[in-house]
Amino acid sequence: MKATRTGIIIVALSAWAGSTQAQSVERLVPLSNGHAFAEDINDNGEVVGQSMLVGFGMVPTRWDAGGNASNLGMLSGGVTGNALAINNNGEIVGYSEDMNGFRSATLWDGRGGIVDVHSALGSSGPSIPWDINDSGVIVGQALITAGIFPRGFVWDQVNPAQQAGTDLYPGGANYGINNDGHIVGSGYFFGDPDDALLAVPDGRGGYDYPLINPLGFWFSQARAINSDGMMIGHSGYGSTTATWNACIFTGDDRDPVQTLGTLPMLDTSEGLDVNDSGMVVGFSWDGTGNGIDPRAWAWVDGTMYDLNELLPEGGEFEILSRATGVNNNGDIVGWGRLLDGSVGAFLIEGFAPPSECAADLNGDGTLDFFDVSTFLSAFNAQDPIADFDRNDEWDFFDVSAFLGAYNAGCP
């Protein structure tokens, strides 16, 4: 319902003030000119990944809440590396890689120390830690038992390394762990596609394995689990082609997979992280080989949103390719292609789906004086909701965009 707009011009003319950061795409600057990749973000706004350092190459990197980058360092013999996950205590896991390409699981303890997790595991092959929870429990993949393929491990600085999560499979990985110690990942048999797996502590030092994988010959990986036990990843379940889509693993054997779909023109999608509100992030790509660029997305309440819709004209990014991490504030990190062709790490603070009624700023479904007042207050207070044209400049164009949305009314 449209409301009376008497006095709107007077309000608009008085709404000149300052500037602020909106729901914009921020580039995380690397240690030196070159590529950067963001992998994860904690609730304190600390981001980890890797970036270029002149004279060294790509090194594990931490960006603080202000966007300042620091080199985490590597294990002895490491010439490159990557930081893959960070918990809310600032503990970081990733790998150090030597000149032969051998990867060794590494823990940065948040106090300046580096722990050789690979040696502590006793792995006879490469090792990668994919996640760490707030209790410091690390999960990943390594060769710590007999076999020729890495399998899922669990380890912390108190308990010895344990093969878990993929015990019944010759190969696999643990990709995610929540603060209850529930682990998700995938395992595989020789020549078979991956099966999505869940491992739950049994209270006796071991694990129970509730079935979450859809029965049949489907490629499925569970990649992350939130505090409510919501498990996300991707699966080919129900697909009539060789593609797969991002999904939620429901734990219901009658309806084991809730498919999240994919973006237009892209037939394949993967879910990589989920926060405690159920916001899922990932990317879609072209499995047919038509050369269409992958695109990053966020899925909220049944709808997948292309994060590229947030890119302003004249910005640094040409395309956002992959969203890799999301925290409980709705902050999203990932990477994409910059205008110069290099790869850049990005941060989107406080992602929220676009409103169907953009000018309804108080969310009551009606356009009236209270929405005008909210816009005026937000503009003067440098609130993110007042950047209507999303160009990081608060001026007449924001006033004009708000007026246009207001006059358009609500559906």
Description:
With 411 residues, the protein is mainly beta. The chain has two domains: 8-17 and 367-408, no CATH class; 26-348, Peptidase/esterase 'gauge' domain (Methylamine Dehydrogenase, Chain H). It is built from four helices and 28 strands. The protein has helices at 8-13, 117-121, 369-380, 396-408; strands at residues 25-28, 36-41, 47-53, 57-63, 69-71, 80-86, 92-97, 103-108, 114-116, 128-132, 138-142, 151-155, 162-163, 171-177, 183-188, 195-201, 207-208, 220-225, 231-235, 245-249, 257-261, 268-274, 280-285, 295-300, 303-306, 317-326, 332-338, 343-348. The strands form seven sheets. Strands 1-28-27-26 form a four-stranded antiparallel β-sheet, with no helix packed on it. A four-stranded antiparallel β-sheet has the order 2-3-4-5, with no helix packed on it. The protein is globular.
Envelope shape: globular
CATH architecture assignment of the largest domain: 7 Propeller
Approximately what portion of the residues adopt beta-strand conformation? 35-45%
Query: Mean of the pLDDT scores?
Result: 89
Instruction: Report the total helices.
Output: 4
Q: What is the fold-level CATH name, i.e. the topology of the largest domain?
A: Methylamine Dehydrogenase, Chain H
What strand line-up does the widest sheet have? 1-28-27-26
User: How many beta strands in the DSSP annotation?
Assistant: 28
Number of structural units classed as domains: 2
CATH superfamily of the largest domain: Peptidase/esterase 'gauge' domain
The value of Rg in angstroms is 23 Å
Low-confidence stretches: 1-22
